[in-house]
Design brief:
By secondary structure, the protein is of the alpha+beta class. It has 4 domains: 1-13 and 492-672, no CATH class; 31-69 and 77-194, Jelly Rolls; 198-305, Immunoglobulin-like; 313-478, Glycosidases (TIM Barrel). The strands form 6 sheets. It has an 8-stranded mixed barrel with strand order 23-24-25-26-27-28-29-30. Strands 2, 3, 4, 6, 7, 9 and 10 form a 7-stranded antiparallel beta sheet that branches. The protein is elongated, with a radius of gyration of 32 Å. The chain crosses the membrane at residues 7-24, 494-513, 534-557, 583-605, 648-664, 676-695. Keywords: Glycosidase, Hydrolase, Membrane, Transmembrane, Transmembrane helix. Residues 247-302 form the Glycoside hydrolase family 2 immunoglobulin-like beta-sandwich domain.
Length: 721
């Protein structure tokens, strides 16, 4: 079986794989503007945005970044990294950055903050061993912090920070999801803060009204980062209009036995307060400061808008006034382009002028830059939690998103959340939606559905996706430019037409050639007519295998990931494959299918009379596949109305139809056909084993399409009558 011919094909296939790997196309993405969620005047801060080096693995990154400086290694073009500017919409596996830490930071604890991370992050400092790992977290688009002790840094010399990203929890838990591609992205700012022993945490704000007086409750925590924090602490808060303080409060917090985290609540009364509205997006300033007897200071400043959004009898209300929603949905691709070009504010203003009052973020959490700009412009934001097409068995806990929601709810422009999209109607899904609704309050909670399935929310809060828009009695949100239905294989039809002509020619030459018998396979000195027959049989075999590889490639590039813009971002692995060269994928599939056929015949040969030559047996069997000419013609006729799935379905049906004839040929020569099924059986068995890990996904798909199949069956039944 493993003769020279088989080895040659393996080498050719490996070379083809190498060419595909060498030309592998990753998304370049766009560099993005970003802003910080809160401003501190007292912390030493180092902004880590900007140029990073991108690698495919941790080992490659550390080898390249560390050893050259020690004179042990020179950077080679196969291992060196590529530059990447963060934040970015580009996906990556590993990035590194060199940084130096000032000596005056040596007595302070460091806090490394990542904003807008999507993926599971592992962060290392000056190495990649477990002892040099400073932390990990599951990023879902919010703000994530890692605390680093001062002794971990090298002062006065370069430090290397390494960040590894794998697939996000949403990617892994989604329908038929997996951790591939093992990459993620960072769309927000990255910074390193040197903090004092006690810092003040980003607060939660609740607003109540007594006629025109606003009662503002600010709940925060004092986070003690040392072993012996120095108390007591004085917490001072003030609300101002930008020029003068309008309300202030001071509290003294005494030490406790468990001093790691101490809650603090400040209450402000603001007479004749101005409400934040779309016509008058007025923002106050909230400033919080904590000090101790040693003179340590930590503070936060952030804008504060006073507004209230509610949902009553199917209608939105802003500050008690009914609000008819006219919104526009923003795809991740367009969001990245706007942030890259710095056109966020001008774009939002133009939408306001067009009569839009809301922007819906599809498949992403809006960055602080968007929310801050929307706060100033006076336009609403509708965000999504990353819970989309998730089988009930893998639904996350609603409180997993508590930190993400708490940071975003400080913005008066954030009106609503989609807490689930495309979920089923099981009890666990209903429970999740109800819990998520409580988590996002006071923002509004909605669930988007693909069919009329009941969710755990009210009927008005369960919205059916209809093409490129969602709508209700409250208004509508539409995608401005729906994405194309599929990615096309460029020049596929020219290739298919040429291949059909080739198949017709080879089929005709095979018909004209001599018909040779099984016992002639082992003929060492065949006559010329037999050599001609073998030649044309061999070419037809290669052409048929190449046609099958072409059908698979065509199917891959016709998978309609973008047919629904509300779900177009859910399968990054398929999007990555569709970004590659179809010609290289076709070549790899040709080699793979030939190797599978050689392997199948190699397994069969010992079980046949006289143990025939593998190539001769393949050519002899090929005469039963001459019907493949019609499949090639159907492929070429797709532009003239033949459904794109017809060639593949036709090939499968004809393959089964002619299976008894192929089995009869083997039985007639005294062999058994069962060995021919061993290799295909192993492949099918492997597919079933893979599918067994996704039983809940198949149940989910069945439940999703069952209402559709029921209507189809009814229509067929009526037609038969």
């Amino acid at each position: 079986m493993f003769n020279r011919r088989f080895i040659v094909f393996i080498i050719l296939w490996v070379v083809t794989l190498g060419v595909l790997w060498w030309n592998w196309q990753s998304s370049e993405g766009d560099s993005l503007y970003a802003s910080q969620s809160a401003i501190s005047a007292s912390r030493y801060t180092q902004n880590l945005n900007g140029s990073w080096n991108q690698f495919s693995s941790l080992r490659q990154a550390w080898t390249t970044e560390s050893e050259p400086s020690e004179g042990k290694y020179s950077k080679f073009f196969l291992t060196k990294g590529r530059p990447l500017v963060l934040p970015s919409s580009a996906r990556f596996s590993v990035v590194t950055k060199r940084l130096q830490i000032p000596g005056e930071w040596s007595s302070r604890t460091m806090v490394l903050t990542f904003n807008g991370v999507q993926g599971h992050a592992n962060v290392y400092l000056n190495g990649i061993s477990s002892s040099e790992k400073i932390g990990e977290f599951e990023g879902s688009g919010g703000s994530d912090e890692l605390e680093i002790l001062p002794k971990a840094f090298r002062y006065g010399e370069d430090n290397t920070l390494l960040v590894e990203l794998t697939g996000s929890a949403g990617q892994r838990s989604g329908l038929l999801g997996s951790a591939w591609p093992k990459s993620g992205y960072i769309k927000g700012d990255i910074r390193l803060d040197a903090v004092v022993e006690t810092t003040i945490v980003l607060p939660q704000v609740k607003i109540g009204w007594l006629e025109s007086t606003a009662q503002i409750t600010v709940a925060t925590d004092l986070l003690h980062r040392g072993f012996s924090p120095e108390g007591p602490w004085t917490v001072y808060g003030v609300i101002s209009d930008g020029s003068a303080g309008l309300a202030e409060q001071t509290l003294v917090v005494e030490p406790q036995e468990s001093p790691d985290r101490q809650p603090v609540t400040l209450t402000f009364l603001l007479p004749d307060a101005r409400r934040w509205t779309t016509e008058d997006p007025y923002l106050y300033q909230l400033h919080l400061k904590v000090t101790n007897s040693k003179g340590d200071v930590d503070d936060l400043s952030l804008p504060l808008g006073l507004s209230a959004v509610s949902f009553e009898s199917g209608n939105w209300k802003l500050n008690g006034q009914e609000l008819l929603i006219s919104g526009e949905a923003l795809t991740p691709q367009k969001e990245s382009r706007l942030r890259n070009s710095g056109e966020i504010e001008s774009w939002l203003i133009s939408k306001r002028q067009e009569g839009k009052n809301l922007v819906y973020f599809i498949g992403q959490v809006p960055d602080e830059l968007w929310l801050q700009t929307a706060d100033r412009v006076g336009i609403g934001i509708w965000a999504e939690l990353p819970v989309e097409l998730v089988p009930s068995k893998r639904l996350p806990q609603a409180d997993d998103f508590r930190n993400l929601i708490s940071v975003k709810r400080l913005h008066p422009s954030l009106w609503a959340w989609t807490v689930g999209k495309g979920l089923d109607s099981s009890d666990s899904a209903k429970m999740y939606l109800q819990q998520a609704e409580q988590e996002v309050e006071p923002s509004l909670a909605f669930a988007l559905t693909l069919s009329n399935l009941r969710s755990g929310l009210s009927e008005e809060q369960s919205i059916l996706i209809e093409g490129a828009s969602i709508k209700g009695m409250w208004g509508a949100v539409a995608v401005e430019t729906p994405l194309t239905s599929s990615v096309q294989w460029d020049k596929e039809q020219i290739f298919a037409g040429c291949w059909a002509l080739l198949m017709v020619f080879l089929g005709w030459m095979n018909i004209r050639s001599a018909t040779w018998r099984y016992k002639e396979i082992g003929n060492n000195k065949p006559k010329r007519r037999l050599r001609n027959a073998w030649f044309w049989n061999g070419l037809f075999f290669l052409a048929r295998i190449s046609m099958v590889a072409g059908l698979f490639t065509s199917g891959l590039f016709r998978i309609p990931l973008n047919v629904n813009p509300w779900l177009s971002h859910l399968w990054p692995g398929m999007q990555l494959l569709q970004a590659q060269s179809p010609w290289l994928i076709w070549a790899v599939l040709v080699g793979l299918f030939i190797l599978i056929r050689l392997l199948q015949i190699g397994v069969v040969v010992p079980h046949l009379p006289e143990k025939p030559n593998e190539a001769g047996l393949i050519y002899w069997l090929e005469r039963r596949y001459r019907w493949a000419v019609f499949i090639a013609i159907a492929w070429a006729l797709i532009p003239w109305g033949v459904p794109f799935y017809a060639p593949m379905v036709g090939y499968i049906l004809l393959g089964f139809l002619f299976a008894p004839i192929r089995a009869h040929d083997i039985h007639r020569i005294g062999g058994r056909y069962l060995p021919f099924l061993w290799v295909p059986g192993i492949i099918v068995g492997a597919v079933f084993v893979w599918g067994s890990f996704y039983v809940s996904d198949w149940v989910f798909i069945w439940n999703m399409f069952q209402p559709l199949t029921h209507s189809i069956v009814q229509q067929l039944h009526e037609m038969i009558k």
